[in-house]
């Protein structure tokens, strides 16, 4: 850690946007556990009370009402903060059927414009605050593709393998709306940050799973567990990710939050960082899921990948900076399944 811990971590103050989401709620907890002061922004404080009772060290926590679409609504939350974690984002994957006749116009107006406006509003508030030294932006693996221009998979997938916006518009593959909003918001953020002298770093999250604080099961966990739950809407997303990437990247919720904090604090952090503790083939994921949660109602798939090497979703840039992962694939799946059983989303497995 570059900016030594002896500075007294407790004195530092960070803002987390989207504190009621999966990553946001766990990040608030991770920061409080480490002794930081936290300003958490939520759209509706009344809906966040169950989280406040779960977070430790909540005497160092302040909740702020803020909306990404209201310019200036983050001004108060950012006062006195050393850094901002911009986690808040729309999780919309599809266009409602009644808008299909004018899909482009609907997506521009209702998803892309608000996503871009949201990050710019947060960055404008950072400029006003005078105290914010760095912004860490939560991006997504949906902004990355493993395929080269000929459509063949690259053996190593890194931060340079960005998808092109026009390609997303043209193919409209499953989850394309979310991918486009993340891609364009991130591009707009880096452009605005560069023009205004803001230090911005982005974390490209792979599929996040493990335990959760949220009131409902996070969609990333539903995507990962879709082979055993049989939820077709989420399985379509898993399949789309697998066909774009050639393999599936996963990361534990605790590791993704540690990576956010690591990148906030590391003096040499810059640009984009893929955060993936392990990548695996779809068939390997299937087999692990069945091992941990045997169930009869789901078809196993044959391993079609015998002759090919799955692309490796590489976290080299992040590891080279000194970051290390605590959890591997088996732990992530095991903990996600246990948490979903406690929640009642998955039935307990009779031994």
Protein architecture, described:
42% of the residues lie in helices and 15% in strands. The chain has 351 residues and is α/β, with parallel strands linked by helices. The protein has a single domain, classed as NAD(P)-binding Rossmann-like Domain (Rossmann fold), CATH 3.40.50.720.
Q: What's the gyration radius in Å?
A: 20 Å
The CATH superfamily label reads NAD(P)-binding Rossmann-like Domain
**How would you write the strand order of the largest sheet?**
3-2-1-4-5-7-10
Broad structural category: alpha/beta
In percent, how much strand structure appears in the residues? 15-25%
Largest sheet: 7 strands, parallel
Terminal-residue CA separation: 45 Å
Number of domains: 1
Shape: globular
């Amino acid at each position: 850690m570059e900016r030594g811990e002896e500075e007294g971590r407790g004195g530092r103050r960070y803002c987390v946007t989207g504190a009621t989401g999966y990553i946001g709620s766990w990040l608030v907890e991770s920061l409080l556990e480490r002794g930081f002061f936290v300003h958490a922004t939520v759209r509706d404080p009344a809906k966040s009370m169950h989280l406040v009772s779960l977070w430790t060290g909540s005497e160092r926590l302040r909740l702020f009402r803020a909306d990404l679409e209201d310019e200036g609504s983050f001004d108060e939350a950012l006062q006195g903060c050393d850094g901002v974690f911009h986690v808040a984002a729309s999780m919309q994957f599809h266009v409602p059927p009644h808008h299909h006749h004018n899909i482009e116009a609907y997506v521009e107006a209702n998803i892309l414009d608000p996503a871009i406006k949201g990050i710019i509003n947060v960055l404008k508030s950072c400029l006003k605050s005078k105290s914010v030294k760095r912004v860490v932006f939560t991006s997504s693996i949906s902004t990355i593709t493993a395929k080269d221009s000929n459509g063949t998979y690259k053996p190593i997938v890194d931060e340079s393998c960005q998808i092109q916006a026009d390609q997303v518009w043209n193919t409209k593959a499953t989850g394309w709306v979310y991918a486009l909003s993340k891609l364009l918001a991130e591009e707009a953020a880096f452009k605005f940050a560069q023009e205004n002298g803001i230090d911005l770093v982005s974390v490209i999250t792979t599929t996040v799973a493990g335990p959760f604080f949220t009131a409902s099961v996070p969609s990333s966990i539903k995507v990962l567990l879709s082979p055993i739950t049989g939820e077709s809407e989420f399985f379509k997303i898993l399949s789309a990710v697998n066909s774009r990437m050639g393999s599936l990247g996963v990361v534990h919720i605790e590791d993704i939050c540690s990576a956010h904090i690591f990148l906030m604090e590391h003096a040499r952090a810059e640009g984009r960082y893929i955060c993936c503790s392990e990548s695996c083939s779809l068939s390997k994921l299937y087999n692990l899921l069945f091992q941990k949660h045997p169930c009869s109602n789901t078809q196993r798939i044959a391993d079609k990948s015998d002759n090919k090497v799955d692309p490796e979703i590489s976290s080299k840039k992040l590891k080279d900076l000194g970051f290390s992962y605590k959890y591997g694939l088996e732990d992530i799946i095991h903990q996600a399944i246990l948490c979903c059983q406690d929640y009642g989303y998955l039935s307990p497995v009779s031994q």
